[in-house]
């Protein structure tokens, strides 16, 4: 039929083509983000929605489960063990974060120049990052062992201890032992981010400070530190989230001992979900923990956005 | 193209035969999941089966602490293995949850099933039905260092026969042998202690785990006697300080240092010590009770069952029945110095050269396993009432308070 009037047909086709192009132009951005969007919906939002639903049921790992509304959340508010675990997790986070940030930044200052020795040092410090946290925790668990642990032996040999100690019978030494192992394991990651931040600072600023007579520490304090603040905030954010989600290292090294004093929030969620089979309750605890982390992360991101750029 | 009639007939017959033959002779490959700690024994059994049967079995090893999660999710997803071997202590929960196939009419009618250790038969029954049987058992015993016994002036051929004697011997080792300890237990491991301390309690008639909210729990003099013995040893320094924090990682390692006189352990220790520490002269004895002759044991290890939804259930049951035969029990297990699950085969030709195995094999017959739902909550969890009771009694000294608190919490769990 269209062949009866070729000009009209071309006009209609052209009109349709324009309309399609307009639609394409309008949603072009959406098409670009579509793969990522599908991924996020499928693997983040949908499981999260399922988790929320699970938290409103009394589902057991052994099956079954009915809708019970907010009962799990009410129970969580009265669960002393969960709040104690959350308190210990916060203590661990507050304890380890300054160590990781301070030591990581110091190492970054020492290894930032791209000279062979510094590059080699960076590589060596970064090596433990590629080891699984389970393997490294197991390694350190035995290093701290009272009878066969090499770390204990070294401390005795250099005179810091009179005899090998049992690290995991008291909460504070246990926390210290885990902190040492995790610092060894992850310090290289923070250092690397800091090195990237330091290296991205315009060299001319440093040179100008040098000409003005600024010494090394003045350049660190007045130039490097302020201009690395965004990286520091980002690294702190990653570190805090990691610490709030700590599980493997405590599961392997302390087993929550002594007497449950080193249970972290995630460890307690694991206990409820997979040892006591209470999947619904475990889901509710997970949601509470997620919300707490979300609040702190939002605060940190806001602070981070106010920092000056390099 | 025309084909002669005969040719067409032959071709049709050949094609029919080709289709028919595989349907008759088709061999299946069955899948089995076994937890890591029993996979060695399971592999011996599977190797023997595979060598003599057309249907083959493939073993997948699952880390011990992931078995429950893995089975639960696989049953709910409808994608299960044909056979499963797991810690018998979870049988009550799994049977109640409807995860397993009813084997009452098949396995229940097998004469060999009646010869399986009583503990396995009890744990595999629910509501009058049978859901599994023994596969790779292990049993708790008292392990003692004969060298330290001699140094302490004790007779290495006379292990303690009562809880009081155990305490006395342990104290003597601590006093007489410099650098040695009398006894060891993993103070932060619920599972290890239900395996090794509980038999000393129930040997004296104690009832430990309640089956309902008003059932007896931590009941009987044996509970207090054993906790008092442990408390006395702890305060006297006859137990290493590291015991308090041991989550089970050093369950065996401490004895292997050669500085521990006695500890509750499992039959598996015999092979491990012989292979890795031939320098340690050790003995095996039943775990004693309060009175002489009260010995008991915890029958642990794995049961074998068919998960609901198994695609080869009939052949899976065939394997379960076969592994109870004399041939399988002796050639796959006993020959490899692994305990058979049939009590009548405890005294076998392979164990004669190593009498310590006969002690453990006989312990399977006198031992038992608590039948309890929510066993994890009551015992295995890191803050379980069972573990909290041990820790409070032994390390803090409040024995009566610890027993009462455990009783109350356990009943609360059982009532849920």
Describe this structure in words.
The complex is a heterodimer of chains A (310) and B (416). Chain A is mostly helical. Chain A has a domain of 168 residues: MetI-like fold (Orthogonal Bundle), CATH 1.10.3720.10. Chain A is 74% helix and 0% strand. Chain A contains 14 helices and no strands. In chain A, helix 8 runs antiparallel to helix 11 and helix 13 runs antiparallel to helix 14. The longest helix of chain A has 32 residues. The mean pLDDT of chain A is 90. With 416 residues, chain B is of the alpha/beta class. Chain B folds into 2 domains: 178 residues, D-Maltodextrin-Binding Protein, domain 2 (3-Layer(aba) Sandwich), CATH 3.40.190; 204 residues, D-Maltodextrin-Binding Protein, domain 2, CATH 3.40.190.10. Chain B has 18 helices and 10 strands. In chain B, the strands form 2 sheets. In chain B, strands 1, 2, 3, 6, 7, 8, 9 and 10 form an 8-stranded mixed β-sheet that branches. In chain B, helix 2 packs across helix 14, helix 10 packs across helix 17 and helix 17 packs antiparallel against helix 18. The radius of gyration of chain B is 25 Å and the shape is globular.
List the main descriptive attributes of the protein structure presented here.
heterodimer; A: 310 residues; mainly alpha; MetI-like fold; 74% helix; 0% strand; B: 416 residues; alpha/beta; D-Maltodextrin-Binding Protein, domain 2; 2 domains; 8-stranded mixed sheet; 18 helices; globular
> Quick one: biggest sheet of chain B?
8 strands, mixed
- Helical content band of chain B: 40-55%
Largest contact between protein chains?
A: A-B, 27 and 33 residues
CATH topology of the domain at 94-261 in chain A: MetI-like fold
Termini gap of chain B: 79 Å
CATH architecture annotation of the domain at 94-261 in chain A:
Orthogonal Bundle
What proportion strand of chain B? 5-15%
| CATH 4th-level superfamily of the largest domain in chain B | Periplasmic binding protein-like II
Q: Give Rg of chain A in angstroms.
A: 27 Å
* Number of distinct helices of chain B: 18
Count the beta strands of chain A. 0
For the record, the CATH class of the largest domain in chain B is: Alpha Beta
Average pLDDT taken over every residue of chain A? 90
Through-space gap between termini of chain A:
66 Å
As for the CATH topology of the largest domain in chain B, it is D-Maltodextrin-Binding Protein, domain 2
Query: Low-confidence stretches of chain B at least 5 residues in length (pLDDT < 50)?
Result: 19-24
Number of domains of chain B: 2
